[in-house]
């Protein structure tokens, strides 16, 4: 039913027979109910607004996305109901608005909204009856796009890796061999000459070792690997790593607080890779603490689907500017850091089917959580709201 016809009908309502009015009203009710059923079936959020930006209709998808009550939001302005959508900046009868936005409530999502005016016609003059706002959740596609970009970056680095290994690795080995020959000859010199030249030799050897370490970390961060899995307990690998770091933790006066789950299931893990990831995370944690020492909290939790391990320090934290590039190669806030540690950790965790999350605030410490899926996922029966009834055929039941 066209809006122009409705406008003309309303203008001449007193001239229409009551029976005809009732028939038209019933038709409108049926059409309204049909349209609402269609809107409620959509996965996209739908909001209908009047020309002043007051909400006249909200479907269930929109109320779920924005965390609003459909009944209470009717008659309220869009600007006060949904933070970030300022009506005076969006409304324009002459154009369609399409933008992306990020919301943090009721959960973090990336959205795309489409605001279009609804035009009506009264006596050959166009006017705006209201607006329709369509909202799509693009969180998954956005994450996928970011992962694709990251994959492309790693592919580029992988192509460079072979050249780096050849062009830098071989000269480093050659330099190391020649420095060893020089060291033998220096030992045959007088004590005074040995002291003078030995200092320079030690510096050169130290720099070569550092370059060799950077090269190995770079190749390790980007080279595709296949974990050699076996049934292991995550807590055992954690304790082995803590024992390895014990002398350094004691020297730095770092306290370790453990809050571990009583029991953990066996996981299919590559022990050496997981210990390397834990080593990098723990080292990052105690290096963020002040020189006088501090505390690192380690927690583990077990759910029906995964095992999570959280490492929390109370150190300097990470600034918002640096958070965006913590997984970028060679991005490090440490003077002697290579910026490859977290990249290696994430690669290892993801190769085990898990994920890593980092929450940090400058001056308030950093929390890193890794989650690894269980192989023996428990099966849970969902509660049914209706009783289950199975009707048996009398003949079949008799045979049983």
UniProtKB/TrEMBL annotation:
Molecular function terms from GO: ATP binding; phosphorelay sensor kinase activity
Start and end residues of each Histidine kinase domain: 163-376
Keyword field contains ATP-binding: yes
PANTHER family: PEROXIDE STRESS-ACTIVATED HISTIDINE KINASE MAK3, SENSOR HISTIDINE KINASE
Domain PAS: 31-78
Organism: Oceaniferula spumae
Catalytically driven reaction(s): ATP + protein L-histidine = ADP + protein N-phospho-L-histidine
Keywords for this protein: ATP-binding, Kinase, Nucleotide-binding, Phosphoprotein, Transferase, Two-component regulatory system
InterPro entries in the cross-refs: HATPase_C_sf, HATPase_dom, His_kinase_dom, HisK_dim/P_dom, HisK_dim/P_sf, PAS, PAS-like_dom_sf, Sig_transdc_His_kin-like_C
Protein's UniProt name: histidine kinase
Superkingdom classification of source: Bacteria
Catalytic activity, EC: 2.7.13.3
């Amino acid at each position: 039913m066209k809006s122009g016809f409705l406008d003309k009908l309303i203008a001449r309502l007193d001239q229409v027979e009551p029976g005809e009015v009732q028939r038209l009203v019933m038709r409108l009710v049926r059409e309204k109910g049909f349209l609402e059923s269609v809107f409620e079936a959509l996965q996209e959020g739908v909001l209908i607004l009047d020309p002043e930006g007051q909400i006249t209709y909200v479907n269930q998808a929109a109320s779920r996305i924005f965390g609003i009550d459909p009944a209470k939001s009717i008659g309220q302005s869009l600007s006060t109901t949904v933070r970030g959508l300022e009506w005076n900046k969006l409304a324009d009868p002459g154009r369609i608005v399409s933008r992306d936005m990020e919301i943090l409530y009721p959960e973090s999502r990336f959205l795309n909204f489409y605001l279009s005016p609804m035009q009506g016609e009264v006596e050959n003059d166009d006017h705006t009856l209201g607006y329709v706002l369509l909202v799509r959740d693009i969180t998954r596609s956005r994450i996928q796009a970011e992962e694709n970009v990251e994959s492309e970056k790693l592919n580029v680095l992988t192509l460079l890796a072979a050249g780096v290994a050849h062009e830098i690795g071989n000269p480093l080995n050659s330099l190391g061999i020649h420095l060893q020959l020089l060291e033998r000859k220096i030992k045959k010199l007088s004590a005074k000459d040995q002291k003078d030249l030995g200092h320079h030799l030690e510096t050169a050897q130290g720099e070569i070792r550092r370059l060799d370490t950077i090269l190995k970390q770079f190749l390790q961060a980007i080279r595709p690997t296949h974990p050699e899995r076996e049934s292991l307990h995550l807590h055992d690998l954690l304790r082995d790593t803590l024992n390895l770091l014990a002398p350094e933790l004691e020297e730095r006066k770092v306290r370790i607080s453990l809050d571990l789950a009583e029991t953990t299931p066996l996981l299919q893990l590559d022990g050496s890779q997981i210990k390397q990831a834990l080593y990098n995370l723990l080292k990052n944690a105690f290096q963020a603490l002040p020189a006088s020492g501090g505390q690192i909290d380690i927690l583990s939790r077990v759910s029906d689907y995964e095992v999570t391990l959280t490492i929390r320090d109370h150190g300097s934290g990470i600034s918002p500017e640096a958070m965006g590039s913590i997984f970028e190669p060679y991005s490090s806030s440490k003077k002697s850091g290579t910026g490859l540690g977290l990249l290696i950790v994430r690669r290892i965790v993801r190769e085990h089917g898990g994920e890593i999350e980092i929450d940090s605030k400058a001056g308030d410490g950093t929390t890193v959580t890794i989650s690894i899926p269980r192989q023996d996922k428990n099966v849970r029966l969902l509660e049914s709201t209706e009783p289950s009834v199975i009707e048996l055929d009398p003949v079949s039941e008799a045979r049983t």
